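Practice set, problem 2.
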Amino acid sequence: MKPVKTIDDLIREKDLTAEELERHRELIEECRAREAQLKEYSRATRASMQKMTEELDKLSRTAEELWQEAQRLSRQVHGIYLHVAPAPARKVYH
């Protein structure tokens, strides 16, 4: 990916004269303001993505813990069921 050029990078590359800089002053100022906005939006987006990643990691760990607990409870319930289930019908001889 190509590095992002700033308005100042472009001005240096084009070697604009003082007259050209003055003629395009408003546009240059607007570009600088937008660059600042983009930097802030990028920072906020990275922070949000980091927080979302951390929350998804927590969610994944919680889901794994819940699954393990459900498996443990299932084994316990199955053991209780076997313990209290009626014995098969037996023939009683008198």
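Problem 2, part (b): a different protein.
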Amino acid sequence: MKTAGTAIAAMMLALVGASSACTGADGDAAVPRMRAWPRPVLYPATYRTEPLPLGPDSIAVNASATVECISPEWFNIVYPAYGITVNCTLTAVRPSDASAVVANRMERMARNLGDHRADIARSGEMTLIVAPTALHTPVQFLATDSATYVLSGVAVTSLAANAPADSVAPVIDAIALDITRMIQPTSP
């Protein structure tokens, strides 16, 4: 009996020792996963000025992204390494119809969100919506001067619905930072 009890006690001590080694002595130490997902390499937060045909004279665009002009009202900002394209619409408005255009764009953004939880940041006449679980449209924005233009858009991704959050979140944060920089009313 004493041998069996000693063996059980030794096994329990080994399990406790092994589990404390996995979590760290102080409980705050990081524990590596058995299978880790690769962290994406993010573009540097450096920007260039991109002229616009109407509305604001220019916007700040990440220097590593490319801009595809589809028409004077529609352009895309492409992030090849991320698999993300930010579809942008630049609408000329008059003070009398600006609020209707803004309401239309806000309705579109709400429909894109569906049931996903989102963080919504508003500053003056700018709105940034970040919905990390809406992997196909995680970042949306709207900026206007309420007199001559409405600039709106959405980041469209090719990310799989089961993409690991620790690989996707840094990219979504980087896109949100770039869009915030882009819609700032000051020059880059």
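Answer key, part (b): The mean pLDDT is 83. The beta strands are 47-51, 58-62, 66-71, 74-79, 84-92, 119-123, 126-130, 139-144, 149-157.
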